[in-house]
Automatic annotation (TrEMBL):
It comes from Ambispora leptoticha. The lineage of its organism: Eukaryota, Fungi, Fungi incertae sedis, Mucoromycota, Glomeromycotina. It is found in: Chromosome; Nucleus. Belongs to the CND1 (condensin subunit 1) family. The keyword Ion transport does not apply. Residues 133-169 are annotated as: Disordered. This is Condensin complex subunit 1. Keywords: Cell cycle, Cell division, Chromosome, DNA condensation, Mitosis, Nucleus. GO terms for biological process: cell division; meiotic chromosome condensation; mitotic chromosome condensation.
Length: 1186
């Protein structure tokens, strides 16, 4: 029969008008006695074996002519089917328990055939019952529909003959039999049918054979009054929820129809009670999820009914299954929404809401990440309600702020989203708009407090303040906050009498303002944490943080500017391929929204003015790092965001820069800073207005404001174009640009700002000039002549303002120290830029050589270029490179035709005689020049390295030490062999008392180590100390360093023993608390089992020769940090027992080994052999301890 009977296909055929039966028994051809005999024969066969149903003759006989049979015969057929199915269910259950898989196919076929017959006969019987009910009640819509859908034709042997309906009569007790049938269906669904039907589609088809008749019974309201039928229906629904997650919402909708349309709630209530009585384990996944979805959907549809039984359901908040806890949280959210949306708010409903909020607040401490996340999502929906629950919002905000530091990024993300929603839906905008400027609200609170004090005596006021009434919902609060007139007609003069309404209004107003102020302060406390989260590695978390700061800035929260400034650094993030979802894209959109979105209520010119002002304001008080990031952001916006920064805005920026009006310096500076940034993407912005730059920035205004001159030089550098794209251009040295740059360098001033201007001016000369070395040579010659022609100022001539003078006259000098400092700064920076210039020439020559070779023709260059190349006398790449190297090593600092040798000697002389040349600015400039000279030539570097290292050790100037550290990093890159022997001088600066020096040292070493320029030789312990540095920036940099180092050939693992020795013993050992924190961080990088085994072995061996109890404790603590996931790692510990058995009397050491045992025991699954080893080890150390 298996070849011809397929349940799914048979059910489809049954829907057709003419249903064909192969071996149909024609009732009209058989008398009643023969029919009885046929049934007797079938019953006997089924009694012998229930699987006989698979025989075609028996199966077809039982499904023949259902509508033409007498009720008594129908009843007997139904009894036969039920009896056979019951027997088959029992046989199947036994084989499932025995896991006899060979019998499963035969059971499956038999069950499907019985199910088909039972489902069909129930359908026929219910159709007749519905038709009869329809005729009695004059046709209910439900009965009519059932009658229409009833199938009344069955064809015999394909003849398609229509069979007329027979009337029901006595002899068939269908109500009693339907209960038996439903109970049998429930028992079938309790079977482990997943083993019988492995295919989801086939299993669903089998279950649908029973569920459809069950639903058909529930369509008849008479059936819902029968307790056992209702129980069976309840069981069916519960089974559907248990096995089929996708049926959760349809089941809820079905019960909603029963409750609302037919006013039948008892079935739904029984299901809620049954669900409340269920228990779920943490391992349960599918079933709790299905129930949770059902409860959530049902609470949305029929919240009153769920509210009635919430007292029973809420116990699932203590369930081990986090899915059920999540579902109950969603249900509570729906119930709060339901109560809040009711028109009439009673005391009972308020108490219910408060009770629900208490429950939600408790779940902020839920142990599972998903529950805490779901809780935040529920609260997010509650924020959109019209009723704002002002008292509860205060507590909720505190809890959300605490969740910002949750260990789970998912929770933190949802906490940020909720905090943003709390701002955008705050209830304090009804009186004064939505802005949350703290100063304005504090002023309003102070005013309200004064008004309240003015109408009450102090003693009465104190009592009132202690018993202030609850603030009413802001939806009902009046917009007019002006005080009503005070009635002075009664009472003594000077003692105002106020009505209760006025007094209540004043109290509520004060309370309203106090709540607003507290809310703003709450947001302020969260902002530092949110600034940290902007640097999170979780993309979704960062995106939500951006959204928060955009919202906070929109609502005028003052401290939001801190986050807006830090946001700009996200421009360096590399986005993935998700279009429109990247951090960079969102950052650009945010800045466009905040600063470049026009206001439709303003004119075009007014919008241009506002947007220009916004762009300039971005540069106010910005650090170098912020300006660097802003540079990339604005240039990217100029390139990618079409029309974002219009030509009108650019023109307005130029007008601000070039205006003759007396405007603040920061505005003019901001204008040129922004223009320079935009020109990085569009060079025409600068090239078309070069005359403005020379006239303003390098003219009289630039000389009066050297910072303006510096940013003008940076803007001019944009004219060079992009070297990466080979589109850079250079100007002849007769161009007016170089004349202005020379003037600004030679401008006589004692301001320290000159050094920054001179640096950028020299950079611009070397970037734009065809022969920058010629111009810079002339500048050095002229400056040298001016410096050494100046005589020491006499006492009478020293009437210069002391604030302007850098240092008094020094007898050993023939010049003022600031002038000599400027000269040394110029020659030092020119030396460095000359090296870069030589590299540019070399790269250009090689490029031309490649182009020439690729075209297979003679090299064609201009006469000027040929002259330069002829001087080098090189014809191949190697020869040219050697020539450039020779110039760098021998000519620049030692050549007879070079200007620099004399200044190298001068810098060495000044640095060597720091007692004679005491001026700090001069020492800084001389040391910086010496450091730059040492980067030029290895010979000069080797000759003066000890002098530089001595200065590093002895100088008290942090700036000098920082400059030397940075220079040593550059020298290591250039001349690795020279510096490598003295690398310890660098590591020593990690303990420098100055934060700036320590930070620069850590950054330099990080760069050198991670890029493989120096090898680590046991000095990582000094780097590890920075992990516990008091300065957060240094500790963060150290964490980043070790995280990157751990990804490079097991570097942390290889150096771990040396790090432990460095931190635990010796003069520079850290305290035990710091040691523990450092080790906790570093041991996270020991992940492989083999690494764990080796570390255990090495650490155990260390115990052998140690007498210091501090080191015992430290090593034992390190051993306790290892994971012990494998049996080998624990065996290594047992093998090392002989090395530390005599140290176990130390209480701390013994405690750490107990922790190791507990950790090993917690590993699941655990082999019996390992369990035995652990127990023996535990007994052994216990004996040794005692």
């Amino acid at each position: 029969m298996s070849d011809s009977f397929v349940l799914h296909e048979e059910l489809l055929k049954l829907q057709e008008k003419d249903y064909f039966i192969h071996n149909e028994v024609q009732i009209t051809d058989i008398n009643e006695k023969d029919l009885e005999g046929l049934l007797d024969d079938i019953v006997e066969k089924i009694v012998v074996s229930s699987s006989v149903i698979t025989e075609p003759e028996i199966f077809d006989a039982l499904r023949s002519n259902f509508n033409k049979l007498k009720p008594s015969v129908m009843s007997r057929i139904l009894d036969t089917i039920i009896s056979g199915l019951q027997s088959e269910v029992e046989n199947t259950a036994r084989d499932i328990d025995a896991n006899d898989e060979e019998t499963f196919p035969s059971h499956r076929e038999s069950l499907e055939m019985y199910a088909f017959l039972l489902g069909w006969i129930i359908n026929q019987a219910e159709t007749k019952a519905a038709s009869k009910n329809t005729s009695v009640t004059a046709g209910s819509s439900m009965g009519e529909e059932s009658a229409v859908n009833a199938r009344g034709s069955v064809s015999g042997r394909g003849k398609g003959k229509k069979i007329p309906k027979t009337s029901d009569s006595e002899g068939w007790n269908w109500p009693a039999q339907k209960i038996i049938a439903l109970e049998l269906i429930a028992s079938i669904l309790d079977l482990g049918i997943n083993k019988i039907w492995t295919s989801i589609h086939e299993r669903d088809t089998f279950v649908s054979v029973f569920t459809k008749p069950a639903y058909q019974m529930l369509e008849n309201t008479a059936n819902t009054r029968v307790a056992k039928i209702k129980l069976c229906a309840q069981t069916t629904i519960i089974q559907n929820l248990q096995y089929y997650e996708h049926l959760s919402e349809p089941m809820a909708e079905f019960l909603e129809v029963l409750a609302n349309k037919f006013d039948h709630t008892q079935l739904a209530e029984e299901i809620l009670i049954e669900i409340s009585n269920k228990e779920f384990k943490a391992q349960d996944t599918t079933t709790p999820k299905s129930y949770s979805k059902f409860l959530f959907k049902f609470s949305e549809l029929v919240p009153k009914l769920v509210l009635k039984h919430i007292g029973l359901l809420i116990k699932h908040l203590d369930s081990e299954s986090y899915t059920m806890r999540c579902g109950i949280l969603e249900v509570i959210g729906c119930l709060i929404s339901h109560i809040a949306n009711q028109e009439e708010q009673t005391e009972v409903s308020k108490n219910q809401v408060n009770g629900f909020f208490d429950v939600l607040e408790e779940r902020f401490l839920d142990s599972h990440t998903y529950c805490r996340s779901k809780l935040l999502q529920v609260c997010l929906k509650l924020c959109d309600l019209k009723v704002k629950f002002p008292k509860r919002r205060q507590r909720l905000t505190d809890l959300v702020i605490r969740s910002l530091e949750d260990k789970s990024s998912t929770v933190r993300k949802n906490a940020i989203k909720l905090l943003t929603k709390l701002i955008t839906t705050h209830p304090y905008g009804i009186m004064h708009g939505g802005e949350l400027t703290i100063n304005e609200w504090e002023e309003r609170l102070h005013k309200a407090d004064e008004e309240l004090k003015a109408v009450l005596p102090p003693t009465e006021l104190q009592g009132i303040e202690e018993n202030q009434p609850e603030i009413v919902d802001e939806e009902n609060k009046e917009n007019d906050t002006s005080l009503l007139s005070i009635d002075r007609s009664n009472g003594n003069e000077g003692e105002p009498i106020v009505t209760n309404d006025v007094l209540t209004k004043l109290q509520l107003t004060k309370r309203f303002y106090a709540d607003a102020v507290r809310f703003i302060h709450q947001i302020h406390t969260a902002i530092p944490t949110l600034c940290v989260l902007l640097a999170s590695t979780n993309k979704a978390e960062v995106l939500e943080a951006i959204e928060f700061f955009v919202a906070a800035h929109t609502y005028k929260i003052e401290k939001a500017s801190e986050g807006i400034k830090k946001m700009v650094h996200l421009i360096w993030t590399k986005d993935n391929s998700d279009e429109g979802k990247g951090i960079r894209k969102r950052l650009i959109d945010s800045y466009r929204t905040l600063y470049l979105t026009p206001d439709d209520s303003l004119t075009e010119n007014e919008n241009v003015d506002i947007m220009t002002k916004n762009l300039i304001s971005l540069t106010f008080n910005a650090t170098l790092a912020e300006l660097t990031s802003l540079d990339l952001l604005l240039s990217t916006m100029m390139t990618e965001a079409d029309g974002c920064i219009s030509d009108n805005i650019i023109e307005k920026l130029w007008s601000v820069y070039a205006t003759t009006r007396n405007i603040s310096k920061v505005q003019r500076r901001g204008a040129i800073i922004v223009l320079g940034m935009l020109a990085k993407a569009k060079i025409e912005i600068i090239s078309e207005k070069t005359d403005f730059l020379l006239k303003i920035g390098l003219g009289s205004l630039g000389k009066a404001d050297l910072t303006l001159a510096r940013y003008t030089c940076i803007a001019l550098q944009r004219l060079a174009g992009s070297q990466a794209k080979n589109d850079s251009i250079r100007f002849p040295m007769t161009h007016l640009i170089f004349q202005r740059l020379q003037e600004i360098i030679e401008f006589p001033t004692k301001s320290h700002e000159w050094f920054a201007v001179a640096e950028q001016a020299i950079n611009t000369i070397y970037l734009l000039g065809e022969h920058p070395d010629i111009l810079c040579g002339n500048i050095i010659k002229k400056r040298t002549g001016l410096v050494f022609d100046i005589k020491p100022p006499s006492t009478r001539e020293s009437s210069i303002d002391q604030d302007e003078s850098i240092l008094g006259s020094q007898e050993t000098f023939t010049t003022h120290p600031i002038h000599l400092s400027q000269l040394l700064f110029i020659v030092g920076h020119v030396a460095i830029k000359q090296i870069v210039h030589l590299e540019v020439i070399e790269a250009e020559w090689k490029r031309r050589k490649v182009d020439s070779d690729s075209k297979d023709k003679a090299r064609t260059v201009t006469k000027t270029a040929e002259d330069e190349l002829d001087q080098i006398a090189g014809t191949t790449e190697d020869e040219f490179g050697e020539a450039v190297s020779h110039i760098r090593e021998k000519e620049l600092l030692f050549g007879s035709n070079s200007l620099l040798p004399i200044f190298g000697s001068m810098a060495v002389h000044i640095c060597s005689n720091n007692k004679a040349y005491k001026d700090p600015t001069l020492q800084i400039a001389a040391t910086l020049a010496l450091s730059k000279f040492m980067c030029v030539s290895s010979e000069f570097c080797e000759n003066n390295l000890q002098l530089l290292l001595t200065i590093l050790e002895r100088t008290t100037e942090p700036i000098i030490r920082s400059n030397i550290i940075i220079a040593l990093g550059d020298m290591t890159v250039c001349f690795n062999n020279i510096i490598d022997e003295n690398i310890n001088y660098l590591y020593k600066r990690l303990a420098d008392p100055d934060i700036m020096v320590k930070k620069n040292t850590l950054m330099v070493l990080t760069h050198l180590i991670l890029n493989g320029m120096i090898k680590v030789k046991g000095q990582l312990g000094e780097m590890a100390k920075c992990l516990e540095d008091k300065d957060e920036r240094i500790s963060d940099l150290a964490k980043l360093f070790f995280t990157e180092l751990a990804s490079k050939d097991n570097a942390v693992y290889n150096n771990l023993p040396d790090i432990i020795s460095n931190l635990s013993s010796g003069e520079n050992a850290v305290n035990e608390d710091s040691f523990k924190e450092i080790m906790k961080f570093l041991f996270e990088f020991i992940e492989k089992d083999k690494q764990t085994e080796n570390v255990v072995e090495k650490l155990c061996q260390r115990f052998k020769n140690l007498d210091d109890k501090r080191q015992w404790r430290d090593i034992a603590f390190c051993l306790s940090l290892l994971p012990y996931k494998s049996e080998k790692s624990f065996r290594k510990l047992v093998e090392g027992l002989q090395n530390f058995q005599n140290k176990l009397h130390e209480e701390a050491v013994y405690k750490y080994f107990v922790e190791i045992i507990n950790k090993a025991n917690s590993q699941k699954p655990q082999k019996p052999e390992l369990k035995q080893i652990i127990d023996e080890f535990e007994n052994r150390i216990t004996e040794l301890k005692s």
